[in-house]
Amino acid sequence: MRTDKTKGNSLIYHYLRKYQEEPTSRVFAPLAEAYRKAGLLNEAIEIARDGIRIHPHFLGGRVALARALFDKGEYNQVVKELEPVVLDAPDNLVAQKLLAESYLILGRIAQALSAYKVLLFFLPQDQEIIELVQEIETKAYEDGALVLQQDPVKLKSYTGGYSVKGANDAIAHDPEVKKKEWLKKVEELQSLLVRVQRFKLANRA
């Protein structure tokens, strides 16, 4: 019986051979993901970035890069990679979740709430997302506090965790988000949800 490590090495070898045979193919994305799962984050990021230079519009490649960047704790880079992805494909749930978690870790609460609500639009029965959105909204709008996800890299684990900070303190770390702009953010969210609905209807046609 093969161990997980052996299986991971086998996958790397499989995709690496295909990548070497055709370096301009999109196989770079599963290769980067295999590297990531094996804990070889630098290799995953390098392969993904090389592939994206050839296929700049390949969303799967950007998601693979974002996964590796997230595992490495490069949350600002995750946001940079995934904001265009969710704009083009709001139903890319992996990208939406990674983006929401990165926003939350960075303390960008308004954006995190928007991203989680888009996830909830596509996954209305997901109890975990429902509870998380309710928790953030309750703390933000009723108690004047925001629930911030702690950096899992700093916690030395990827299980995550939550800590409560005052709203003023949290917003101070993100000058783009001020209390007076909360209403505007909510209005922007509603507009985004309308665009998502139109996107879904267009793809059904």
Structure overview:
It is a single chain. By secondary structure, this protein is mainly alpha-helical. It has ten helices and two strands. The chain has helices spanning 4-21, 28-37, 41-54, 59-72, 75-88, 93-106, 109-122, 127-142, 167-172, 182-204, and strands at residues 145-149, 162-166. A two-stranded antiparallel ribbon has the order 1-2. Helix 2 runs antiparallel to helix 3, helix 2 (28-37) runs parallel beside helix 4 and helix 7 (109-122) packs antiparallel against helix 8.
Please outline what is shown here:
This protein has helices spanning 4-21, 28-37, 41-54, 59-72, 75-88, 93-106, 109-122, 127-142, 167-172, 182-204, and strands at 145-149, 162-166.
What is the rounded Rg?
Answer: 19 Å
Order of helices and strands: HHHHHHHHEEHH
Number of strands: 2
- Low-confidence spans: pLDDT under 50, at least 5 residues? 145-152, 154-176
Class based on secondary structure composition and strand pairing: mainly alpha
Strand numbers in spatial order across the main sheet: 1-2
Shape descriptor reads: elongated
β-strand percent reads: under 5%
Number of helices: 10
Percent range for helical residues?
A: 55-70%
- Intertermini distance: 47 Å
Quaternary status: single chain
What does the main sheet amount to?
A: 2 strands, antiparallel
**What is the residue-mean pLDDT, rounded to a whole number?**
77
